[in-house]
Amino acid sequence: MIIVMKTGATKREKEEALGRIRELGYKPHVIHGSTRDVIGAVGDEREKKMVIGAMEAMSGVESVMPILKPYKLASKEVKKEKSIIRITDSLSIGGPQLIVMAGPCAIESEKQIIETAIAVKEAGAHVLRGGAYKPRTSPYSFQGMKEKGLKLLAKAKAVTGLPLVTEVVNPESADLVAEYADILQVGTRNAQNFELLKKVGRLKKPVLLKRGMSMTISELLMSAEYIMSEGNLSVILCERGIRTFETATRNTLDLSAIPVLQGETHLPIIADPSHATGNRNYVAPMSFAAIAAGADGIMIEVHPDPEHATSDGPQSLTPKNFSALMKKLQLFVEASGREL
Ligand code: PEP
Ligand code: MN
Question: Of the residues 127, 188, 299, which should be mutated to test ligand 1's pocket, given the most ligand atoms within 8 Å of the CB?
Fold first, then answer.
């Protein structure tokens, strides 16, 4: 539920409210407003009535309302203004700046990742992507360089200064990945791995949550809620294409998910046209379309030699393709009232 504190509620009254919420077995999440604080309290829905009664009686409390949506902390009911998520001291997502994340599907060698990092940085990317742990559909496909790959990513960051987004595939390796990553990616195949979601919810790094390939928008928000309910409110959602009957593209980029999500949540939303289309020829047009639809960023696969990539070569852009895309992107970014 949402507990709206009175304007001018004292520190002590706020602490008492927080204490009471905890006593009742609920978890409080404070959202600081310009004139008053709001507390999102989440817990067993069956106890709702009792908790509302108890909280309404408190002196610093103005009003108590149930949150009607099944996702609570992710919903606009709790927080109307958009969340701006800090990635580094000088970079955040969800504000006026459109964020571009680019890099290879998988880290393959020092030369490959450093070369790509320098190229995407030069072209204007803000974040370097690259998988060290690869959740592949086949157990016989390349599974990633694992910790060695993380170390190469760290080198690429040292060379370019680009922050890193990389995937975490299980709770066991999450702490290790978090030592290197600036953003933890949860991939489509793990989007309803609730133990993993809870684990990244306890880490202090922003999470890029991809939509499961057969997940509804509401289910995506419930997965975000798993992360947030553990205390990590820094969740970035990613539309990366869903399974449909269409076979001309790898998936179908659900562009309408972007405005739908914006109506439902304060969390930033990015699009991944590489995995959505599976074909490098469609990556640029779908990037432009995603920006027009209101995305806060895009994620694009770039490889210096796509023909020899260990994974996702057909959808990977060359550095040259990427640089051309970035130039054209500028127009769409400006047209949508944002900056690159
Ligand atoms: C990836 O980003 O490399 C990836 C595996 O994406 P997805 O989880 O969307 O398939
Ligand atoms: Mn990929």
Answer: 188
